[in-house]
Amino acid sequence: MEKKKGQKLNAGQKQKRLERAEALKRRFADGRHPRILFTDEKFFTIEEAHNPQRDRIWADERPTEEELIVQRQMTPKGVMV
Question: Which InterPro entries does the protein's record reference (predicted)?
Answer without folding.
Answer: RNaseH_sf
